[in-house]
């Protein structure tokens, strides 16, 4: 049996049907408060320090009171866009940028819509294992990107890079970080050997020179070993999906 880096459940039936019909999942309106109504403790929110970024652009994805995948802020005009792996998409998600040690510096940002590639919707093509999430925090006029900064989306940049990889293991409340060298694993797959990236790190960004060129996912939904991770190659497919979201 193949171990994957995302142990969570799939979309609800209604949301899955919406994906099949349109390729776009619209959030159900579940709030962060709803996610913790069953008694799971919500992350502590700390106030931002004036003049300093309030949180890292990398954070944890939460649903039903627990974090289960990783995501990161990617630059957009509206400043509300987050990137993760398509296999991480599920109902009732919220994003906690800069989450660490049980602290969410900017609180929870509920996901209001999701965009995945048509080929992922049709057949879960591992070469299309990426998704853009739109987030919004009720009552906060500031954009997420204005508070965290963002990586730009890097496409068609080749297969060999020195990257920083970040992810949230599902058994830890702090991220793991590794600097590693990427190689070509297949026609449209990247590979990196970085130790200590188990379940929960799916969606973690591969960043080089301020650009995100991959996320943990793709082959074997990110890999069957915590010490080797994969990503779909970011080419025209993700560029088109990004354009469809940002206009």
Write the layout of secondary structure elements.
Elements: H1 13-22, E1 24-26, H2 32-35, E2 58-63, E3 66-73, E4 81-84, E5 94-97, E6 109-116, H3 118-123, E7 131-135, H4 144-148, E8 152-153, E9 162-167, E10 176-186, E11 189-193, E12 205-208, E13 211-215, E14 228-232, H5 236-246
Parallel strand pairs: 8-13
Antiparallel strand pairs: 1-6, 2-3, 2-5, 3-4, 4-7, 5-6, 6-7, 9-10, 9-12, 10-11, 11-14, 12-13
- Count of folded domains: 2
N-to-C order of helices and strands: HEHEEEEEHEHEEEEEEEH
What about the largest sheet? Answer: 7 strands, mixed
List low-pLDDT spans.
Answer: 8-51
What is the CATH first-level class name of the largest domain?
A: Mainly Beta
SS element count, helices: 5
Q: What portion of the residues fall into strands of 2 or more residues?
A: 25-35%
Average pLDDT, all residues = 84
Textual characterization of the structure:
The protein has 247 residues and is of the alpha+beta class. It has two domains: 13-35 and 57-150, Trypsin-like serine proteases (Thrombin, subunit H); 152-234, Thrombin, subunit H. The chain is 15% helix and 31% strand. The protein has five helices and 14 strands. It has helices spanning 13-22, 32-35, 118-123, 144-148, 236-246; strands at 24-26, 58-63, 66-73, 81-84, 94-97, 109-116, 131-135, 152-153, 162-167, 176-186, 189-193, 205-208, 211-215, 228-232. It has a seven-stranded mixed β-sheet with strand order 8-13-12-9-10-11-14, with no helix packed on it. It has a six-stranded antiparallel β-barrel with strand order 2-3-4-7-6-5. A hairpin with a 2-residue loop joins strand 12 (205-208) and strand 13. The model is unreliable at 8-51 (pLDDT under 50).
